[in-house]
Design goal:
With 390 residues, this protein is α+β, with helices and mostly antiparallel strands. It is 49% helix and 12% strand. The chain has a 4-stranded antiparallel beta sheet with strand order 5-6-7-8. A two-stranded antiparallel ribbon has the order 1-2. This is ADP-ribosylglycohydrolase.
């Protein structure tokens, strides 16, 4: 449906993609420091890596959410012949293998998914309603001109970690919102929510779930769609999140993101009421990313974001993918990579994932090996339990 005249200025769209990408990292960084300090003021802080390890983060550090978005972006292939930008899951899987060691934070469900050999049989795969990390689908849609193809890629990537109907619908809605704002510009609150409702009503569920014929699951999916439509109507009038049975979900996370998106555009204070401290970063990541599609926000503290030039370059890279200017080749493991944790300090090496890199230091503390790695994109702290082969 053509709501407005599509914006033809490709350079302007490229600028908005880069702006949105950078501001997603900003929103994440703002929420990450809030999660660990209770304040939205940039400064050094410490945060959990797991139940046993707490690590120091510099001012403006973004979390594992931005890292997951970066991994998703690095795994995209531009297929001009097929008019699509698709995820190379060989690359995505290998990136995740290292993400579990260098992540900034403790994304429990994602770590469990990486470690699981049969994820589809895990209870969380079927029942987890939070869908942590779902903000990564923004990168998929920003890179895709073809929304239908982009939606298919979004669906597949959501299902990599989670099959809950609400999580799938939330990811698809996030994709639709990014597409609408990128292609058609700003909407009023009521108009945008109406477009989301139309998208849900017209969504071809049978086609989407063609590989899942289980009646119980299909009925649950339809019920979630109905619930979403009811809650979207409520959101038109209410500037707050309504909790069902005092539970927190990906839907609430998205609604918090939308409320803050509208507040950012109106230069109002951010909404935090009822949002768990460890989840506000994803709501803010979406809020600022969406706002970045509409206007170039004059954020004085943006320069505080860690490795900002790299984040900005990945936004530019996403825009190049969208215009099929990268010609990215599918990932093929060289088979020559050594165990990073065994490499000598100071000696340069070439790696399939980290490219040309160097180990800066290695230390062992309380049964864990800490390894600091540096390459042209920045510095990585990898952590793993110490063992005899390290």
């Amino acid at each position: 449906m053509d709501y407005r005249t599509v914006k033809e200025d490709i350079m302007k769209i490229e600028d908005r993609i880069r702006n949105s990408y950078t501001l997603m990292a900003y929103g994440d960084a703002l929420g990450f420091v809030y999660e660990n300090t209770g304040k939205m003021d940039f400064g050094d802080f410490s945060g959990d890596w797991d139940e046993e390890n707490k690590i120091h983060f510099p001012s403006g550090q973004w979390s594992d959410l931005t890292q997951l978005m970066l991994i998703t972006t690095k795994s995209l292939l531009d297929d001009e012949g097929g008019l699509r930008i698709a995820i190379d899951y060989n690359r995505f899987s290998e990136e995740l293998n290292y993400y579990q060691y260098y992540r900034n934070g403790y994304p429990r469900h994602i770590i469990k998914a990486i470690e699981s050999r049969e994820l589809c049989k895990e209870e969380a795969y079927q029942k987890d309603v939070r869908g942590y990390g779902i903000s990564r689908v923004g990168a998929i849609i920003l890179a895709n001109k073809n929304f239908t193809q982009g939606l298919e890629e979004t669906y597949k990537n959501i299902c990599y970690f989670n099959k809950h109907p609400q999580v799938i619908l939330t990811g698809l809605i996030i994709a639709r919102i990014f597409y609408l704002l990128l292609e058609y510009g700003d909407f009023s609150r009521e108009e945008l929510l109406q477009r989301i409702k139309e998208f849900l009503i017209e969504l071809n569920v049978k086609g989407l779930l063609e590989n899942n014929k289980e009646l119980k699951y299909l009925l649950a999916f339809e019920q979630e769609r109905v619930n979403y439509l009811i809650d979207l109507d409520r959101l038109i009038k209410e500037d707050k999140i309504t909790f069902v049975n005092n539970s927190w979900s990906c839907k609430n996370m998205l609604f918090g993101g939308l409320i803050n998106y509208w507040r950012i555009l109106k230069l109002e204070g951010l909404y935090t009421e009822g949002i768990p401290s460890d989840d506000i970063k994803e709501s803010l990541m979406l809020a600022y990313g969406l706002a970045g599609l509409n206007k170039d926000l004059n954020i004085k503290t943006l320069s505080n974001v860690t490795n900002l030039s790299f984040i900005d370059s990945m936004g530019e890279y996403t825009a190049k993918l969208r215009n099929y200017k990268v010609s990215k080749k599918p990932y093929v493991a060289s088979g020559n990579d050594d165990n990073i944790f065994n490499l000598e300090v100071g000696k340069p090496f070439k790696h399939d994932i980290f490219n040309v890199s160097r180990i800066l230091e290695k230390t062992i503390r309380k049964g864990y090996l800490y390894l600091r790695l540096e390459n042209k994109t920045g510095s990585y702290l990898l952590i793993k339990k110490d063992s005899s082969d390290c």
